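I have been asked to look over a protein record a colleague put together. This is what I was given:
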Amino acid sequence: MPAMPAEVSIIIPVWNGQALLERLLASLRAQTHPITAVLVIDNGSEDGAPELAERMGARVIRMGSNTGFSRAVNRGIQECATDWLAIVNSDVEPAPNWLAGLMEAARPADVWFASGKLLSASRRDTIDGTYDAICRGACAWRVGHGHSDGPEFSCARKIWFAPGTASLFRSELFRRIGLFDDRFESYLEDVELGLRCAGLNYSGMYVPDAVAIHVGSAALGQWHPATVRRISRNQVFLVAKYYPARLLLRLLWPVLVAQTLWGGIALRHGAFWAFLSGKLDGLLSFRAARQSGHFSAIKSDWLLHVLQESEAEIRRVQRQTSFDWYWRVYFLLTSGGAD
């Protein structure tokens, strides 16, 4: 008899967006790999999204209020009884073979997670994201975001950072390294998890044939003040948790350059005060975040290697496509330290 397909649960954090959720649930029904359970974790929706999910056969867990992405997903992980789980934002529409492609790529025992290619819903020839990368300055990039799809995004590769937008994980991974950090609420919580994965040598795969469409920032908008504030704060949290004093001193210039440039982008989008507010929030909570760091478990030399490797990946892809002004200026001012 042929082997039974591996069991997988889908975790969907939701805060309003009924129409998008309906489209996602319909696309999950069309998946060629069977799905054991669909868990919708509702963060206090007021537009009928959880009721719709129940009518479409999903199990709904009501959080009662908007607790943020991390807490919602963590609750879903704790409720899962399958060996595999996929975290999928409600504004994602996966192709029918999306899950099957990720499951196939993740079969080897040393592959702990897998993510595919996300295309923009507004321009389907444009990359919304693939896998994540982070520079030494603690700013992250959804690799390929905003660039035209092409051969450079069509090669499978080992990765450390799986975006929380739409990725597959072994459930055992979370038992080994812990859940998402609740302190992050939303944004960069997946990068923080990736740093833990990299530091403890749990890698995954990028699977370009596993394609999904992503609306992006559907809840608030990319440059909403709350979004900018959280990203700005969480960048500080990344430094607090993973840059011990000696490493921070060594990387102080790239950190200052990366953060200042990001502030410039926020200013251009009318969100500079949100940027400053986020940095202040992060600095006021710096000590508490630092106490939850992983210095004892992750060696500084290895972390520096991971950061340099990830930054080199950003530079490689930027060179192959075209440099965004942010990364052009960053590499210019930091002397292209990824080489």
Observations:
- Residues 300-320 form the longest helix (21 residues).
